[in-house]
Amino acid sequence: MKTIYKTSFIILIISFTGLTNSFAQNKVVNEKHSRNKVVVVKNKNHHARNVIVYHPHWAPRASFNHRWIYFPRYNFYWDNLYNVYLIRRGTIWVTSTIVPVEIKKVDLVNEKKVELSEENDSQNSIQDKNAEHQTEYKIE
Q1: Is 1 a domain residue?
Q2: At a CB cut-off of 8 Å and minimum separation 6, what does 51 contact?
Q3: Rounded distance, CA 24 to CA 115, Å?
Q4: What tens digit of pLDDT does each residue of 80-94 get?
Q5: What is Dmax (Cα atoms) for the chain?
Q6: Which domain, by its residues, includes 56?
Q7: 123 lies in a domain?
Q8: In this predicted model, what pLDDT tens digit does every residue of 102-120 receive, in sequence order?
């Protein structure tokens, strides 16, 4: 009789843990992180993945999922990861945390912008592909 109670108790605990895990996998958790990015953790069917959503200071209501934003009209980049502008000064590329003089009066929210693909997220020297970006995203 004691073995029946023990096995039923163990089965009850196992089934309870299985139920709580299945409910926990469908949660979406929003966590605020530094550098104006939100990490959304989606757990479903035991495949967890982090989706990073960036909200740059010049467009706090906009949501971007990738690191680099290219502005073809002014030929500069915005780095969502480090919150810096990458702009060409003569023959060199300069990073700046403050708004460059050339675009100080430009409304970047309404300006044409291109969110570069995920394969560029790990690249720190995006300016190496600038000639390619200029022809691909040319302003007409």
Answers
A1: no
A2: 39, 40, 41, 42, 65
A3: 33
A4: 999 999 999 999 999
A5: 87
A6: 27-136
A7: yes
A8: 899 999 999 999 999 888 8
E strand residue ranges, 10-135 = 28-33, 37-44, 47-54, 68-71, 76-79, 84-89, 92-96, 114-115
Model confidence pTM above 0.85: no
For residue 20, give every residue at least 6 positions away whose Cβ sits within 8 Å of its Cβ, in sequence order, or none. none
Question: What are the distances in angstroms from CA 133 to CA 2, 119, 120, 137?
Answer: 74, 14, 12, 6
For tokens 């108790």, the residue is: 9
Residue 83 corresponds to which tokens in the numbers above? Answer: 């919150």
Is 85 within a domain?
A: yes
Please report whether residue 8 resides in a domain. no
Burial classification of residue 112, based on how many CB atoms lie within 10 Å of its CB (0-12 exposed, 13-18 middle, 19 or more buried): exposed
Q: How many structural domains are present in the chain?
A: 1
Query: Which pair of structure tokens corresponds to residue 120?
Result: 């560029």
Closest CA to 68 of 59, 57, 56, 78: 78
